[in-house]
């Protein structure tokens, strides 16, 4: 049994959606190929970006990096450096004297805050029904994220053990 596709006819969009085919009695005529849509002056230009795909990708990548950073932080702080009882002001001062630990903690701060804010943005988009509510919630969440990231960055880089 071979199928011959040479007799496929292109029909207008209005004919294709009738569900009755071309009316020739051939069941294969029910599968009609519509012509491609043509952009007209009334057709809006593409305004969407790949923001949602990039946000999705950021969540996956930042999650993997955060797991490594946080597990490394916990292993070093709790097992190798003597546990919670050794953590005090002098310990933090000595640790943040090294650019390695400043960078480690800064990367944890930035990734954790941006990862969490992106997750909250998704939750707000899913559950806030009114556009105005969604706008205000995302504005407040964005302001809190920026404030926390800036304040945390300032503390990491301006920490003075001689206070």
UniProtKB/TrEMBL annotation:
Principal subcellular localisation of the protein: membrane
One GO CC annotation: membrane
Membrane topology recorded in Swiss-Prot or TrEMBL: Multi-pass membrane protein
Stretches with biased composition (Polar residues): 1-17
Subcellular location: Membrane
A GO term, aspect molecular function: metal ion binding
Co-factor requirement: heme
Record has Electron transport as a keyword: yes
InterPro entries: SQR/QFR_C/D, Succ_DH_anchor, SuccDH_FuR_B_TM-su
Transmembrane regions: 54-80, 100-118, 139-159
Pathway connected to this protein: Carbohydrate metabolism; tricarboxylic acid cycle
Region (Disordered): 1-28
Keywords recorded for this protein, A-Z: Electron transport, Heme, Iron, Membrane, Metal-binding, Transmembrane, Transmembrane helix, Transport, Tricarboxylic acid cycle
Annotated GO biological process: tricarboxylic acid cycle
Function field: Membrane-anchoring subunit of succinate dehydrogenase (SDH).
Protein name per its UniProtKB record: Succinate dehydrogenase hydrophobic membrane anchor subunit
Organism: Kitasatospora viridis
């Amino acid at each position: 049994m071979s199928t011959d596709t040479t007799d496929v006819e292109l029909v207008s969009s209005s004919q294709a959606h009738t569900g009755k085919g071309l009316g020739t009695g051939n069941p294969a005529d029910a599968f009609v190929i519509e012509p491609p849509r043509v952009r007209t002056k009334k057709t809006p230009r593409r305004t969407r970006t790949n923001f949602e795909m990039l946000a999705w990708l950021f969540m996956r990548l930042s999650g993997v990096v955060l797991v490594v950073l946080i597990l490394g932080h916990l292993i070093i702080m709790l097992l190798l450096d003597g546990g919670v009882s050794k953590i005090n002001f002098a310990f933090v001062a000595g640790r943040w004297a090294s650019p390695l630990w400043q960078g480690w903690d800064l990367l944890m701060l930035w990734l954790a805050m941006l990862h969490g804010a992106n997750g909250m943005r998704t939750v707000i988009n899913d559950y806030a029904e009114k556009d105005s509510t969604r706008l205000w919630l995302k504005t407040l969440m964005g302001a809190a994220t920026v404030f926390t990231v800036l304040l945390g960055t300032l503390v990491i880089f301006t920490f003075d053990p001689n206070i």
